Amino acid sequence: MSFEVSYTVEGSILIVRSSGHIGNQQEYKRYFSSMHEKIRETGCNRLLIDSREIQTDFDTIEVYRAASADALAHRANPLERFAILTVPAEAENARFYENVAYNRGLKVKLFYDEEEAWACVRG
């Protein structure tokens, strides 16, 4: 595994901080599965993912598959609020992910500013 993930719980908010490199869909599935397990384990219904230090090599189709799979998986454990904190360099893929996931029922919002992301999940 070429990425690291840490989890913190603040009330009903699960904070996920990730760093490193996710090179393929199989690694992404491990990343996402561990996050989903933590959501179930903690009972949190709000999620803040800080992905400013994670990199992927995903093309458009891989981003589409990831967003579609995430939206489907979250139907079993719906989130009240979901924010992703990222960097502008990842804007194109991140915006596409946000649009695909949102159109499939996952109410996710993308942010470049940490305070705005926190305001969203605390809502």
Name its key features.
123 residues, alpha/beta, 5-stranded mixed beta sheet, 31% strand, globular
Structure description:
The chain is 45% helix and 31% strand. It is built from four helices and five strands. The chain has helices at 25-42, 60-74, 91-103, 114-122; strands at 3-10, 13-22, 46-56, 81-85, 108-111. The longest helix has 18 residues, at 25-42. It is globular. The chain starts with a strand and ends with a helix. The mean pLDDT is 92.
Q: What is the residue-averaged pLDDT? A: 92
Number of strands: 5
How many distinct helices?
A: 4
Shape: globular
Q: Termini, distance in Å? A: 34 Å
Share of helix, binned: 40-55%
Unreliable residue stretches: none
SSE pattern, N- to C-terminal: EEHEHEHEH
**Which percent range describes the beta-strand content?**
25-35%
Task: Describe the largest sheet.
Answer: 5 strands, mixed
Gyration radius over CA:
13 Å
Strand adjacency order, main sheet? 1-2-3-4-5
Structural class: alpha/beta
